[in-house]
Design brief:
alpha+beta, disordered N terminus, Porin
Length: 349
């Protein structure tokens, strides 16, 4: 009697447990099918629960639920077709992203001209000048200056020693400045050759200045005066370039080209190759110069920057004379080419 009662009382418990297990299994299977459809292909209609097949979203018709992008039918017009996710993904994959434009469109042709957008006017003068005391001054309105001695060295060669210098100073604004360049050699307590230029520089691009002014030559032989005009700046791949043409008395012409590069071996050790060449249109035997390619110098210097403003260096330099200039040097008993060991200091302030 008691055993039958216990059996009858436990039957509802077993039925309830079986129903719970069945519901959990169905929910798990439905979740796995939905997860697979999310990451892969969409589930088939037979695998989708009946509730999701027949029950439309609240407030939407059955046709709108089948394609959310479909527009309602209009009389006399064919209804728009729904776009499937697969076709949309295919269109995105086939899109030519090279046709996409950057924000703001393409840069104007004169984008590198520093005066392109203000025509040279500043807030202190011209059409954009503001009345009253100035509350704001921009960097390109200030006057800056610097002095750089790129080479101050002692050169040791087979035919004697010499002291050489090369430097420049400038004073002005970002766009316009006064530039002074100087280069020369001392040997046997006398000035052998010197070049001094006084130039006016104007910015023509972000990394380039045009320069024009005068050049004075002194040292052995008569002094010479030239009109000078050229460009100086930073070429692609960080080459510092300087090209200047000269027009002198009695139809004399000259061209000077120089280039140098700074290779950082570390934060303080810098290797600097340098090359310079001079060409003349007419011979000037009084100064030992022939027409054509007159002379060229190629050097390699290794410096250690104790600070950014002060760096001693050592190096080697080759100097040669060519054409008629070499013939004049041979007639005077001077060497046509020589190799020099140099030691010096580079500094600026």
């Amino acid at each position: 009697m008691s055993a039958s009662i216990r059996t009858e009382n436990s039957m509802p418990r077993f039925k309830t447990l079986a129903v719970i297990v069945a519901m959990l299994g169905a929910a798990n299977a439905w979740a796995q099918d939905g997860h697979a459809g999310h990451h892969g292909a969409a589930p088939a209609a037979s695998d989708t629960p009946a509730a999701t097949q027949t029950m439309p979203m609240q407030g939407m018709s059955h046709e709108q639920h089948q394609g959310h992008d479909a527009s309602p039918p209009v009389a006399g017009k064919e209804p728009m077709k729904a776009t499937s996710p697969a076709s949309t993904a295919g269109d995105m994959a086939g899109m030519d992203h090279g046709d996409m434009q950057m924000q703001g469109g393409s840069a104007p042709a004169d984008a590198r001209d520093p005066n392109a957008y203000s025509d040279g006017f500043t807030l202190g003068e011209g059409e954009y000048a503001l009345p009253g005391p100035r509350q704001l001054r921009l960097a390109d309105e200030h006057v800056f200056g610097a002095v750089l001695f790129d080479r101050l060295e002692r050169a040791y060669g087979r035919d004697g020693d010499a002291t050489s210098y090369e430097g420049q100073a400038w004073l002005g604004t970002t766009y316009n400045r006064l530039v002074i360049k100087a280069e020369g050699d001392y040997a046997d307590s006398r000035l052998e050759d010197a070049r001094t230029e006084v130039l006016w520089g104007h910015a023509i691009a972000s990394y380039w200045d045009s320069q024009f002014g005068v050049r004075f030559d002194s040292g052995e032989g008569p002094d010479r005066t030239w009109a000078a005009f050229g460009v100086q700046g930073l070429a692609p791949y960080w080459f510092e370039m300087d090209a200047t043409a000269y027009l002198g008395e009695q139809g004399r012409t000259a061209l000077r080209l120089s280039a140098e590069y700074e290779l950082l071996l570390s934060q303080r050790v810098v290797l600097q190759p340098r090359i310079e060449a001079n060409l003349y249109g007419k011979s000037d035997e009084a100064r030992g110069i022939g027409s054509g390619l007159s002379d060229a110098v190629a050097g390699l210097r290794l410096r250690y920057e104790i600070s950014r403003q002060f760096a001693p260096y050592v190096g080697v330099e080759w100097a040669g004379k060519f054409g008629q200039t070499a013939d004049i040097a041979r007639a005077e008993g001077a060497p046509r080419n020589e190799t020099l060991w140099v030691a010096g200091v580079r500094f600026w302030f």
